[in-house]
Amino acid sequence: MPQLDVVTFINQYVWVIGSVSSIIIISIITILPSIKKLNEIRHITGDEVVSFKKKREYSTFKKLLNY
C-alpha cells in the first residue's frame, strides 16, 4: 500500500501541515482585523443605545420640536 510507505507519508504530511498553516496565517491576517473592527463598532453602538435608554435624553426630538 503506497499510503503507508514512509517516504510518501512524510511528504504528504509536510504538504498538509504547510497548506493548513498557510491558510490559517492568511485568515488571521485578512479576516480577523475586519471581525475585530465590526465587533468594536457593534460594541460602541450598543453602549450608545444603553446610555440613551438610561438617560432618556431626547435631544434630537427636542431639536425637531423647536423648529
UniProtKB/TrEMBL annotation:
GO BP of this protein: ATP biosynthetic process
Which organism is this protein's natural source?
A: Rhopilema esculentum
Superkingdom of origin: Eukaryota
Organism lineage string: Eukaryota, Metazoa, Cnidaria, Scyphozoa, Rhizostomeae
- Protein name in UniProt: ATP synthase F0 subunit 8
Q: Which gene encodes it?
A: atp8
The principal location of this protein is mitochondrion
The UniProt entry's GO CC annotations, sorted and at most eight, read:
mitochondrial membrane
Compartments where found: Mitochondrion membrane
Q: Name one Pfam family in it.
A: YMF19
Transmembrane feature ranges: 12-32
Alphabetically sorted, this entry's keywords are: ATP synthesis, Membrane, Mitochondrion, Transmembrane, Transmembrane helix
InterPro entries in the cross-refs = YMF19-like_N
Keyword Transmembrane carried by entry: yes
Q: Where is the ATP synthase YMF19-like N-terminal domain?
A: 2-57
